[in-house]
Amino acid sequence: MKRLNMTAFSFAVIFFISCTLTSCKSYPATFEIAKYIEKSDKSIEIIEGNDFFIIRPVEEKLKTDIGMIFYPGGRVNYQAYLPLMEQFAKRGLFCILVEMPFNYAFMNFKAADRFQKFYPEIKHWYMAGHSLGGAMAASYVSRHPDNFDGLVLLAAYSTHNLSKSNLKVLSIYGSNDGVLNQSHYKKCLKNLPPAGKGLTEIIIEGGNHAQFASYGAQKGDYMPEISIDEQQERTAEEFCLWAGLK
Questions:
Q1: Number of neighbours of residue 86 by Cβ within 10 angstroms
Q2: Rounded distance, CA 173 to CA 195, Å?
Q3: What residues contact residue 181 under an 8 Å CB cut-off, 6+ apart?
Q4: What is the mean predicted confidence (pLDDT) over 44-70?
Q5: What does the alpha-carbon distance between residue 98 and residue 81 come to, in Å, rounded to a whole number?
Q6: DSSP H or E stretch at residue 44
Q7: Residue 116: pLDDT above 80?
């Protein structure tokens, strides 16, 4: 009888969590995916899997051995990050964009486990994510520091201590970000390598929280002073400079 009660309790908890997550407002992409892929830059290839996208350059002059696994922000449909991934791929990066259950990266923060072994030609891997996805990317890297050359945090911070690791960390956020908790961000800087000795911080003037992806305005965010294209292009450029793609 006790086991039966515990089983019923477990099902009740799972049901409650599922209802809570599905009732939260999600942010879909602001474009139709099929049309977007059809009109995408011909220098890149977008391959859709069951729960991920591969976005990679097709021109030989752009191909490198550098790859990125990207986790989306909380409540944001992963498709909304395709334009940002396209900016990376146009500059020679092999990108894997991962879908998350209920659009929450903490529901499957180990999602990166399965990808690296399938692409042995990629010698240098970076883990990346936006907002909650960035925090979960940091959590994953903290458990697999030897599998990655670096971590990229977009409007995000790490709650796991990476300060003693050899990882390079690139942290980018917009000056008009109204969602990123600056107090938590500054407090958690101690979890990253010191500035100049592993950590590089970039503030995109006029950028905000939501414009790292294409899902429209986000509650609590401030108005941007630059276009979404400019913010995403700048993000890709900063990464390429930092990672040595240029």
A1: 20
A2: 16
A3: none
A4: 91
A5: 10
A6: strand 44-48
A7: yes
24 band by pLDDT with thresholds 50, 70 and 90: low
Would you list the DSSP string of 120-140? Answer: TT--EEEEEEETHHHHHHHHH
Tell me the domains of the chain and their CATH numbers: 44-243 (3.40.50.1820)
**In whole numbers, what is the pLDDT of the chain averaged over residues?**
89
C-alpha separations of 99 from 7, 23, 74, 122, 201 in Å: 29, 18, 11, 21, 27
Q: What tens digit of pLDDT does each residue of 91-110 get?
A: 999 999 999 999 999 998 88
Paired with 173 in beta bridges are 203
The SS3 call for residue 56 is strand
pLDDT recorded at residue 63 = 76
Question: Which residues have CB under 8 Å from 185's CB, separation 6+?
Answer: 157, 173
Q: Are strands 52-57 and 168-174 parallel, antiparallel or unpaired?
A: unpaired
Whether the per-residue pLDDT at 244 is higher than 80: the answer is yes
200 burial level (CB within 10 Å; 0-12, 13-18, 19+): middle
131: closest CA among 220, 30, 40? 220
pLDDT tens by residue, 1-21:
444 444 443 333 333 344 334
- Say if CB 162 and CB 189 are below 8 A apart: no
